[in-house]
Each structure stands twice: as structure tokens, then as C-alpha cells.
Amino acid sequence: MFTEAIEEILRDQAGPDAIRASEASGIGSARPAVWSALEDAGFLELLAPEDDGGAALALAALAPIFTAFGRHALPVPAAQSIAARALLRDTGVRPPAGMITLAGNCLRMADGSLCAPRVPFGLTSDYVLANVDGELQLLDAGEAQRNATGVRGSASATLTWKRGAVSAPLAGEGAGEGVRRFSAAIHAAAIAGAMDRVFGMTLQYCNDRSQFGKSIGKFQAVQHQLSVMAQHVASAGIAAELAFSGAGRVPARLATAIAKARTSMAVPLVASTAHALHGAIGITEEYDLQLYTRRLHEWRMADGSETYWNEIVGEALLAQPQATVTDFARAALAV
């Protein structure tokens, strides 16, 4: 029910034109209409208890919603804000109004300042809920120095807070790990959604584009590339669901690692194949494909690429020397 209602808002107010408008805006610009629509409908409180005006959804119910956000390349940190509000409530802190994003790895410098590299929506968010050496910290983005990544159209930025702008931690050692997991799981779902969109666009183009009297989708070589794309898109979707399959309030570490590793691993192949089959039109600014493939490459690196998360999966496997890989996979899927 929630997914369908949110999808309707996304179709109406998060189309390619809205994405382009958000890319052209800067810090302090007007909020995209889709943010107000989601906020006014109460969809930022999906994890909040019912007696606090929320929907009290289980973690698993978020997977299709966050995947839909990725499918539409949502230009606001709705997924991050939903997670941040839940994490803040667990500490007894009432979430502030405005956009809240997540920083899964915030570094404490020798002079007491904090640096959060490549924060998603770091240019546009009002607050950052950060993992600072395992501690949970809520930071005012307006008091930070924001340095854009330099990637065209990206809202990500490296944020730096001077020592005087750093507040006390909300929770102690280990509490910040939930931010890292949630952020990685959100990006895994976003990748799965965006790849589904890219595959749909590619399949449609191959069916519409004709060469030698028939659609190029009828050629065996093209069909082979489409089938490989389809396999990776399907696997990514399953992996993203795994990240949100646990019974806890925060994505499990191993499930998140598998999800982020698998989805990130699929990005280079899916994106490159989509552009290869589209030909020159796929890289033009006027064509929508680049709106999604650019984000796929950015989300692949966010919170660590497949190399980082595969190392976590490998360590978990090696910690069970008596288990076969099949047994390990079954146990991971049963989380």
C-alpha cells in the first residue's frame, strides 16, 4: 500500500525534468516539490511508532520503497531521512525538521574537527547523522564547510566541521555502526532500482530501434547482452532485499555486506552494456539514460565499493572453516 502511494508521487514529481532541475540548483535553493509531497504525506515517518504519528513498518517493508527511490533517481535524501529519524528516536532524541542525510564514515581529525567524505546529498541536506569512530553524532550541515565532489550533477560533498561546531555524541561506541549499515543498504537498494530502470530503457530501445528491416533486439548478439544484463539486475534486486530482511531495526552487517557488494559489482557491466546498446544517443545530455548511469557509478563507490564489502563477506566465511560455501550462503540468506 505504501509503495504504490509513494510510486504515484514519484511518477508525478520525480521525473527526469525534476532531476535536471535539482542538478542545476545549489545550496539554499528551493526544496524540490517531491520532498514536500513525501513529507506532507507522512512518508518520512515510516519507521516511527504509530502513537508517534508513524507507520511502524518492519525493516523488510522498506526494501521496495527504497528501490523505488533508486528507480526514479530521487533527488532528495528521503531514504536517509527515514533511517535517520528511526536511529535518532532509538536514542531518545526528537528528529529535527528538514532533510537529514547519513555519513557512514566521519573522521575525527587531530585538531578536533570532523571530516565526512563524500556525503550523499551533502550539498543540500540540513543535518547529517554521522558515524564518528563508532559514536553516533547529529551535525548541523549549515555549520560545515561543503566541498563538492566535482562530479557533474552530483549533490554529494565532503563536509568539514570545525571543533567549535561539533556537539557531544548522542550515543557511545558502536552506536554509529547502524548509520554505516543503513547507508550502505540504502545505496544497495538505490542501485537495484536504478539498474532496473536502465534495463527497462535499454530493452525498450532495442525493441524500437530498427536495422536491416527488424528491431535490433531480434539479433542474437544483442539478445545475449540483454540476457546478461537481466541476470545481473535480477540478482541485484534479490541482494538488495536481503539487506532489509532481518528482524532487527537496523540492517544486519553480513546481509548488508552481501547486498552492497553484489549490487556494486553489477554496475560497470549493466551501465556499459546499456550505453553500448544505445549507441551515441545514450551519452547525450538530452537523453535520460545518463541521469541514471551517472548515479549508478556514484552509488557504487558510496560507503565503499564491492572490494570493501567483499572483504567483510570473505572474513565471515573464513571465520567458519568447517562450513561449505553453500552452507554459508544458506545461513546468510536465512538472516
Automatic annotation (TrEMBL):
Protein name: Acyl-CoA dehydrogenase-like protein
The organism of origin for this protein: Caballeronia choica
Alphabetical keyword list: FAD, Flavoprotein, Oxidoreductase
Highest taxon listed in the record's lineage: Bacteria
Coiled-coil ranges per UniProt: none
GO MF entries: acyl-CoA dehydrogenase activity; flavin adenine dinucleotide binding
Family: Belongs to the acyl-CoA dehydrogenase family.
Acyl-CoA dehydrogenase/oxidase C-terminal domain mapped to chain residues: 185-317
Cofactor(s), names only, from the UniProt record: FAD
